[in-house]
Amino acid sequence: MSRILTGIQSSGKPHLGNLLGAILPAIELADAQKEPAFLFIADLHALTTIKDPQQLRENTYAVAATWLAAGLSPERHVFFRQSDVPEVTELAWYFGCLTPYPMLANAHSFKEKSENLAEVSAGLFTYPVLMAADILLYQADLIPVGKDQKQHLEITRDIAQAFNRTFGDTFKLPEPVFREQVMVLPGIDGRKMSKSYGNTLDVLGDLNELHKRVKRIVTDSTPVEEPKDPEKCIVFQLYAAVAPSEETEAMRQRYLQGGYGYAQAKEALFEMLKSRFASQREAYAAWMSDKDQLEAILHAGAEKARAEAAKTLALVRQRIGLSVHSYLSSRVKPIV
Ligand code: ADP
Ligand code: TRP
Question: What is this structure's pTM?
Answer without folding.
Answer: 0.93
